[in-house]
Design the sequence.
């Protein structure tokens, strides 16, 4: 997937602002005044933060103001691609009521692997693009520098046109309106299984995935969901990727990985991250895949074709 579209801060309906902090006291120092200012302006505040931070905020806020709404994202799982549609839904609901909106969005980085961290970084870059032309709103993104390595922190910071520093909201000088730069993917885990497929081979693709996942206890509804996802990706290869593709499967650290390669090219950075229109016949496949998988990685360029990795968490032994 090419990522030539850039987040254009001055054209966006979103004011995307980062707040770097260290420890609980600094978290409250930045977030509480942000909430107070919003309430003073009679704005709705949508709060999506890790459970420990939510408990802290609830303890500090006096009373129960209906304008402060805590959003439970646990049902979205660990796939960052589900976050933008959730924000779009929540912001759209408030916009219909004509209320100005602020948001506080912090992701739990504890226990995240390399693949998840890369997709979270891409999610932050995409926010500027996803809300261009949307109703105006302000999103404060707190980041605990004690839990994120400095290099990742610098990369994330450059995705934010604005920053909160020492109580001052200001433009962020290092914001970069440039195409997203991916890190190299982790190599396939050796040994892995490889299977070349083409038209008429979808059943064989499913059989290969069952053979890889079965010994690790993947079964029932979760297996059926996985097979729907792999069928969708392999079918796209046949329909849009030159009529054939290659499947690789392996297991790493309790996760089944199904990797698909074909000659097609995906040019939409937001593919699979928009809620499909009820009237649209297109755009449903990748959306469904994101809902069924714990993580989806997409890399696509005219030079290399398309690579898609589906990550499915396996049952605990």
Sequence:
């Amino acid at each position: 997937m090419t990522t030539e579209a850039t987040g254009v801060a001055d054209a966006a309906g979103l004011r995307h602002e980062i707040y770097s902090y260290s420890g609980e006291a600094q978290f409250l120092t930045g977030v509480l005044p942000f909430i107070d200012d919003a309430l003073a302006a009679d704005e709705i505040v949508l709060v999506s933060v890790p459970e420990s931070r939510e408990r802290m905020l609830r303890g500090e806020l006096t009373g129960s103001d209906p304008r402060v709404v805590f959003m439970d994202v646990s049902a979205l799982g660990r796939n960052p691609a589900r976050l933008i549609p959730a924000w779009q839904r929540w912001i759209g609901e408030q916009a219909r009521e004509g209320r100005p909106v602020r948001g506080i969005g912090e992701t739990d980085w504890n226990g995240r692997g390399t693949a998840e961290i890369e997709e979270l970084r891409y999610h932050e870059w995409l926010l500027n693009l996803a809300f261009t032309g949307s109703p105006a709103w302000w999103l404060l993104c707190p980041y605990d520098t004690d839990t994120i390595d400095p290099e990742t922190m610098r990369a994330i910071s450059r995705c934010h046109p604005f920053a909160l520093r020492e109580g001052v909201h200001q433009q962020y000088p290092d914001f970069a309106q440039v195409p997203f730069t991916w890190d190299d993917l982790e190599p396939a885990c050796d040994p892995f299984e490889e299977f070349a497929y083409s038209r008429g081979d979808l059943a064989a693709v499913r059989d290969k995935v069952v053979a890889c996942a079965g010994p690790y206890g993947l079964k029932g509804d979760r297996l059926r969901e996985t097979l729907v996802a792999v069928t969708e990706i392999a079918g796209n290869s046949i329909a849009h990727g030159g009529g054939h593709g290659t499947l690789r499967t392996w297991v790493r650290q309790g996760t089944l990985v199904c990797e698909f390669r074909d000659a097609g090219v995906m040019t939409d950075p937001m593919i699979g991250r928009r809620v499909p229109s009820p009237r649209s016949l297109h755009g449903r496949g990748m959306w469904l895949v994101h809902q069924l998988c714990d993580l989806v990685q997409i890399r696509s360029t005219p030079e290399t074709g398309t690579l898609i990795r589906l990550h499915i968490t396996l049952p605990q032994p």
In short: The mean pLDDT is 91.
